[in-house]
Amino acid sequence: MIRSNAFCDHLPRRDFLRMGTAGFFGATLGLPQLLAAEKARVAPTKDISFIYVFLKGGLSTIDTFDLKPDAPAEFRGEFNPIVSNVPGIQVCEHLPKTSQIMDHFSLLRSFRHHNSDHGPADHYMLTGYFPLPGFNGNVTPNNQRPSFGSVIARKLGPRGSVPPYVALPKMHPSGGSSYLGASAAPFTIDADPNAPNFSVPDILPPTSISTDRLDNRHQILADLDRYQKSAETRANHHVESLDVFQRKAFELMTSPAAKKAFDIHSEPAKLRDAFGRNSLGQSCLMARRLVEAGVRCVTIDHSNWDTHDGNFRTLKDSLLPQFDPAISSLFRDLKERGMLETTLVVVTGEFGRTPRINKNAGRDHWGPSFTVLVGGGGVKGGRVIGKSNPRAERPDAEPLGPEDLAATIFKQMGIDPKTEFHTPDGRPIAIVNNGKVINDIL
Fold first, then answer.
1. Are 119 and 252 found together in one domain?
2. Do 267 and 343 share a domain, yes or no?
3. Distance in angstroms (rounded) separating the CA atoms of residues 335 and 318
4. Are 74 and 83 in contact (CB under 8 A)?
5. Residue ranges making up the domain that contains 217
6. Residue 71 lies in a domain
7. What is the CATH number of the domain that holds 288?
8. Do 338 and 367 share a domain, yes or no?
9. Is the same domain home to 198 and 89?
């Protein structure tokens, strides 16, 4: 059995992040630092939002979206395919709800990359860049390149009073901003939307907090102002900036728009049930709420898909019963609200699982071949792009990789994939590493 709190490398799934802390190179972003990012930006040519559902550990796509029923038993697995609402496309029998919305997204079945280790593969799939030597996948944050969300935040900026980039229920270690700095880092919810007492630190106070206690927060801010003014002779410019951002942070905390966006408790119980009363389901619902409120990018970091042991039992009994209602409800809800055409959705892990079943009835890491789901935001649904070979060992068509996914995401967001940023030492780095836009789905 896999452990719920650790991956195969025995590293705990801890959240090292704390609200209100802004570090360097991709730290999570507190409100004052977030608001400091309000600078002049190039206006987008499209107004698309992006939801990235990252299945940390690696979804077994050979058992879900690229089944091989004619392969030998040691490859094909225990699950049977079922027809979907798109003729010719079959999916796993344990995805009955998802099978009925196949026309909402497409499958990239010839996806691959050249690494099967969690940390480097995570970085690759969240940034479009394979990490350079010296990469440490065991720290937070660990970005050598900025994540997709950070590029979007830097290029497009916020819409109104909500952050441009939100990570939930925590920030993935490779979800940070790298050389773009704290202003492009995600606003991290740092709480599970499925928790009964869920609230967002520093934005949505628990319902038990009264108005007078909020006033006390304002008084604390005033006290902080006095401290800042006493230090003006030492660091006048810094203090003035901090004063402005702290005040704007308080305004955001009391903003009706921000409160509404993060208040998942206002959703009808029936809809919350449809998404699933679990972390993945409620995170998907929260993501829809956030993009509806104006957030440009939401990254959902969901664990643990690292099914080395008991792969079929874990998928059938735990993971797919969460995935099926969450993903199907996300696409259906976006469609019914008229938001699917303006919301790009990508669903993937950092890699797939080995075609050959191991001695523990599990599947191990496999970067050479897996399937990625892409829908909404101008993507045509109901298509299968490429294919894998008869045992899902490698692509059997022109392969696609993280660079191509990056180019496609940015193009759909209205960002030129040829854009370059500059590191603090002035070195130009392209946001896309020679990737090609996947035009077959657009």
1. no
2. yes
3. 27
4. no
5. 205-262
6. yes
7. 3.40.720.10
8. yes
9. yes
Residue closest to 347 by CA, chosen among 368, 365, 330, 364: 330
Closest-CA residue to 19 (of 159, 135, 186): 186
Question: 268 burial class (0-12, 13-18, 19+ CB within 10 angstroms)?
Answer: exposed
Residue 8 tokens, joined: 């195969």
Give a yes or no: residue 1 inside a domain: no
What's the pTM value of the predicted model, to 2 decimals? 0.85
Tell me whether residue 330 is in a domain.
Answer: yes
Sequential pLDDT tens for the chain (442 residues):
444 446 675 554 433 333 333 333 344 555 555 555 544 344 445 699 999 999 999 999 999 999 999 999 999 999 999 999 999 999 999 999 999 999 999 999 999 999 999 999 999 999 999 999 989 887 888 899 999 999 999 999 999 888 899 999 999 999 999 999 888 989 888 899 999 999 886 664 444 444 455 556 555 555 545 444 444 444 444 444 444 345 445 655 666 777 889 999 999 999 999 999 999 999 999 999 999 999 999 999 999 999 999 999 999 999 999 999 999 999 999 999 999 999 999 999 999 999 999 999 999 999 999 999 999 999 999 999 999 999 999 999 899 999 999 999 999 999 999 999 999 899 999 999 999 999 999 9
